[in-house]
């Protein structure tokens, strides 16, 4: 019997997880059963992916840089990467602003709904924590993100998945230094990282064997812990505006892939679909990063020299889906609470959302912290911030899942574009977990 492709296995797991979750909502103590006995398997899977994220970045980035043989090539890749990421982020924010101004979802929210949402969420721990974190970030200096990029303890940075930029900085520093000591002296260290890279990628293959079961657990838990369905329906117009913008971004990416790489867009989506489905299930670009790297390198043909830099950086600073969501959410909240935004305010949203995306943690809920910063930049009343966040809190998790898919798709698209532009886009070479199984059997 022909083996079912991985993306179909994951999709089946997602559908069964949603159906199982819906079924458990009609059973007494069903939610607690899922939380106690099903959710832990999904949590373990996400932990495993996060466990190997830092070792993979270090091994892959050191290998990629040391294989360049020329530092000027790295500068060329880095410059193209940053410029394309900034360009796609600005386009994402602009798409969101155009869409939300056309649809105007905030004008359809009743006072009754606003009152109920405020009562349910305005004083919740989650909302208050986001406001406090945003306030802390806003008080930092204009070059704080540069200061935060440089670790004072490499081991400490490696022990914290939120310090991804620090890990990238240290690894680039290490990789360039390996180049500068000469090939003979660097050979033992380079061989170590080459070997480590292969081992960690094999770990990705092994972890992915459990992906269909993990997404079942993750989605079942999301369904049973979902909020009041009536409130979700009240926010449907807003949610559809965000999703519509995200779909436009997917089309935009596929046009770029078709025009600049001459690849079939549907083939491209099929190759990265396991990473997209995991991004949807986990709501975390950082957790999905090992899978994204494996799919882009082995199944699309992007050279490790490119993917090892572009993808880790993208997981940290490239958040097209999140940036679009911020634009839509900021205008939606302003419409619902009758706070007028001028054209200049909307230009400010573009600039602030772009800057806020740099260095933001690639974890669930980071987008809402960035949203607070965006709202404050246009003079949104401080006493209404909690109410504004409460308006969208009920649908934030499902939208977070959707926008993380776009973040990951954007990273994969940019890595493919950069690889094509520097002549590093080759033929796919997929590997299986059991390629060398007979050797150790």
Automatic annotation (TrEMBL):
<feature type="transmembrane region" description="Helical">
    <location>
        <begin position="236"/>
        <end position="260"/>
    </location>
</feature>
<keyword id="KW-0325">Glycoprotein</keyword>
<dbReference type="InterPro" id="IPR018107">
    <property type="entry name" value="Na-dicarboxylate_symporter_CS"/>
</dbReference>
<feature type="transmembrane region" description="Helical">
    <location>
        <begin position="82"/>
        <end position="103"/>
    </location>
</feature>
<keyword id="KW-0472">Membrane</keyword>
<feature type="transmembrane region" description="Helical">
    <location>
        <begin position="349"/>
        <end position="375"/>
    </location>
</feature>
<feature type="transmembrane region" description="Helical">
    <location>
        <begin position="203"/>
        <end position="224"/>
    </location>
</feature>
<feature type="transmembrane region" description="Helical">
    <location>
        <begin position="163"/>
        <end position="182"/>
    </location>
</feature>
<protein>
    <submittedName>
        <fullName>Dicarboxylate/amino acid:cation symporter</fullName>
    </submittedName>
</protein>
<feature type="transmembrane region" description="Helical">
    <location>
        <begin position="5"/>
        <end position="24"/>
    </location>
</feature>
<dbReference type="InterPro" id="IPR036458">
    <property type="entry name" value="Na:dicarbo_symporter_sf"/>
</dbReference>
<feature type="transmembrane region" description="Helical">
    <location>
        <begin position="44"/>
        <end position="62"/>
    </location>
</feature>
<keyword id="KW-1133">Transmembrane helix</keyword>
<dbReference type="Pfam" id="PF00375">
    <property type="entry name" value="SDF"/>
</dbReference>
<keyword id="KW-0813">Transport</keyword>
<dbReference type="InterPro" id="IPR050746">
    <property type="entry name" value="DAACS"/>
</dbReference>
<keyword id="KW-0769">Symport</keyword>
<keyword id="KW-0812">Transmembrane</keyword>
<dbReference type="InterPro" id="IPR001991">
    <property type="entry name" value="Na-dicarboxylate_symporter"/>
</dbReference>
């Amino acid at each position: 019997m022909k083996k079912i492709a991985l993306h179909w296995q994951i999709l089946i797991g997602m559908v069964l997880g949603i159906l199982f979750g819906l079924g458990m909502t009609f059973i007494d103590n069903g939610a607690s059963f899922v939380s106690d006995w099903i959710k832990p398997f999904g949590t373990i899977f996400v932990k495993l992916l996060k466990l190997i994220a830092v070792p993979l970045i270090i091994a892959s980035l050191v290998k990629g840089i040391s294989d360049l043989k020329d530092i000027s090539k790295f500068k060329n890749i880095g410059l193209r990467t940053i410029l394309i990421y900034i360009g796609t982020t600005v386009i994402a924010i602009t798409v969101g602003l155009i869409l939300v101004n056309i649809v105007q979802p905030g004008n359809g929210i009743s006072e009754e709904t606003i009152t109920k949402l405020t009562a349910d969420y305005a004083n919740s721990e989650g909302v208050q924590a986001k406001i406090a974190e945003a306030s802390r970030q806003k008080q930092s200096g204009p070059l704080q993100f540069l200061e935060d990029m440089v670790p004072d303890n490499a081991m400490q940075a490696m022990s914290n998945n939120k310090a991804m930029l620090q890990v990238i900085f240290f690894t680039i520093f290490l990789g360039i230094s390996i180049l500068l000591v000469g090939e003979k002296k660097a050979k033992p260290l380079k061989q170590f990282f080459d070997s480590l890279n292969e081992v960690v990628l094999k770990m990705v293959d092994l972890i992915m064997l459990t992906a269909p079961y993990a997404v079942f657990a993750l989605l079942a838990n999301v369904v049973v812990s979902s909020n009041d369905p009536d409130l979700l329906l009240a926010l449907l117009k807003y949610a559809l505006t965000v999703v519509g913008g995200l779909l436009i971004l997917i089309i935009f990416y596929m046009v770029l892939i078709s025009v600049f790489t001459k690849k079939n867009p549907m083939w491209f989506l099929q190759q990265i679909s396991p990473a997209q489905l995991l991004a949807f299930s986990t709501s975390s670009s950082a957790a999905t990063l090992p899978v994204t790297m494996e799919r882009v390198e082995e199944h699309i043909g992007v050279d490790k020299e490119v993917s090892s830099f572009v993808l880790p950086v993208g997981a940290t600073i490239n958040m097209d889906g999140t940036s679009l969501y911020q634009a839509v959410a900021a205008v939606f909240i302003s419409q619902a609470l009758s706070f007028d935004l001028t054209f200049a305010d909307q230009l400010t949203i573009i600039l602030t959302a772009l800057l806020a995306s740099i260095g933001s943690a690639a974890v669930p809920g980071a987008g809402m912290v960035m949203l607070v910063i965006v709202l404050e930049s246009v003079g949104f009343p401080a006493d209404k911030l909690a109410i504004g966040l409460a308006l969208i809190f009920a649908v934030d998790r499902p939208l977070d899942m959707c926008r993380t898919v776009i973040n990951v798709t954007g990273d994969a698209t940019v890595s493919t574009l950069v690889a094509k532009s520097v002549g590093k886009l080759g033929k796919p070479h997929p590997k299986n977990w059991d390629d060398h199984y007979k050797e150790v059997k």
